[in-house]
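Quick one, tokens below:
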């Protein structure tokens, strides 16, 4: 049998009510939410389970998503399952680090709370933007975008879906140029800043200061980093990669391709939504994906993993 990868979604997957069934059915999951509330000084249960106007604000979203995905992970671990490799899209990389035991949950949720604040404050509202580009290859997009000052590729999600990021006017110029070059569509994203662009380099530098006192643990399970799409097996470069990740392109397609090349044929997406599953299916038809996003989905996981 092939290898198993745990993958974790990033910002945008959040929704009111996420993880509530795990909170109600699993003591370990409940402890994760309660610990998060204690560490951050506000009710994580209220933020995640009830309709509110904070869940989509970056400084709250990031901590909420990490808490929810790790709460779901806690029950999967209790069932005795272990992956061969972990990875996460952008913010989800912190869940991957918790999953492979390189970082504690307490450190991860405290760091991403600060990460969210730093990213939120990095660029004044309205001065940065992001857009999804549909129907063009990464190479075609690079050719159009590279000569335009102030815009760059933020996410290589999957074939046919690339995200660009940068100064608002530069993103608009790039969108027009991309449509003229053959893009099916360009879709402005509802985000509060130009994430994963060089405009966030200052936020990354400040994040380095937040990460400085964090103690990382040697991990036997590797994780795949967004910055290079490579396997990371030691702790030496993790902090630098997390700093760079804030302003670097997310190489998700390349990450999945590298995991498949290393023998992964089953992916388990842990967290709300099914975003990563749709990406994986577009990257390769030779592998399968299973979503753990509700308490009921755990029953099918047993059959999927066959253990």
């Amino acid at each position: 049998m092939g290898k198993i990868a745990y993958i974790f979604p990033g910002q945008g997957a959040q929704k009111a009510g996420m993880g509530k069934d795990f909170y109600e059915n699993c003591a370990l999951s409940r402890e994760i939410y309660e610990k998060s509330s204690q560490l951050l000084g506000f009710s994580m249960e209220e933020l995640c389970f009830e309709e509110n106007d904070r869940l989509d604000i970056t400084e709250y979203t990031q901590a909420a998503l990490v808490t929810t995905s790790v709460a779901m992970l806690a029950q999967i671990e209790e069932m005795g399952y272990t992956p061969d490799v972990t990875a996460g899209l952008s913010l989800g990389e912190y869940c991957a680090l918790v999953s492979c035991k390189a970082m504690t949950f307490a450190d991860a949720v405290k760091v991403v709370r600060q990460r969210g604040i730093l990213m939120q404050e990095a660029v004044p509202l309205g001065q940065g933007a992001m857009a999804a580009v549909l129907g063009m290859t990464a190479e075609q997009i690079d050719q159009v975008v590279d000569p335009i000052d102030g815009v760059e590729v933020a996410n290589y999600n999957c074939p046919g879906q690339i995200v660009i990021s940068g100064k608002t006017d530069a993103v608009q110029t790039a969108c027009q140029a991309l449509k003229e070059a053959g893009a099916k569509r360009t879709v402005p994203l509802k985000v509060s800043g130009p994430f994963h662009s060089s405009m966030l380099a200052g936020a990354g530098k400040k994040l380095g200061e937040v990460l400085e006192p964090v103690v990382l643990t040697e991990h036997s399970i590797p994780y795949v980093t967004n910055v290079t799409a490579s396997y990371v097996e030691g702790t030496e470069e993790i902090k630098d990669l997390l700093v760079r990740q804030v302003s670097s392109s997310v190489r998700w397609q390349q990450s999945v391709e590298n995991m498949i090349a290393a023998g992964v044929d089953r992916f388990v997406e842990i967290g709300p939504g099914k975003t990563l599953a749709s990406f994986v299916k577009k990257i390769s038809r030779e592998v399968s994906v299973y979503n753990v996003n509700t308490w009921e989905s755990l029953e099918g996981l047993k059959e999927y993993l066959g253990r």
